[in-house]
Write a structure and sequence with these properties.
By secondary structure, the chain is mainly α. It is about 55% helix and about 0% strand. Helix 4 crosses helix 6.
Length: about 130
């Protein structure tokens, strides 16, 4: 039986009805930027310094805390050089997205809010999920 000898299949027979299929939401992948966001929301944001006695952190401090917590979950003693390189890469990506050469100055700008910082982290989690 050759290729031309088959019976034609109508379009409705070839279609599968997916209207009754269960819907599955797709969650975005968890990123280090989500961890930084959690640290800032949990501890509070400070300006002008990276850590306060009350536990508040600046953006760079939140990155440092998030990486140290992530490192403990992944391996018992993360290599310091690898952690520092990752911290620098994350900071560079945030600077690029914020359009600044100095992240601390960007954070300290008049009118900058925690929501602005959280928006930047959300953007970074989409732009650089592999960090």
């Amino acid at each position: 039986m050759g290729e031309g000898d088959r019976e034609p299949v109508s379009a409705t027979d070839a279609m599968i009805d997916l209207t009754d299929s269960p819907v599955r939401t797709v969650e975005p992948p968890h990123t280090i930027y989500d961890d930084v966001r959690r640290v800032l929301v949990d501890r509070g944001l400070t300006r002008g310094r990276e850590h306060t006695r009350r536990g508040q952190v600046g953006l760079a401090g939140a990155i440092e805390v998030a990486l140290s917590q992530t490192g403990r979950r992944q391996q018992p003693a993360p290599r310091e050089g690898a952690r520092l390189a990752r911290e620098a890469r994350i900071t560079r990506h945030l600077r690029e997205l914020a359009g600044t050469s100095n992240l601390a100055s960007w954070l300290d700008a008049r009118g900058r809010s925690l929501n602005d910082v959280l928006d930047l982290l959300s953007l970074a989690s989409v732009a650089f999920p592999e960090d």
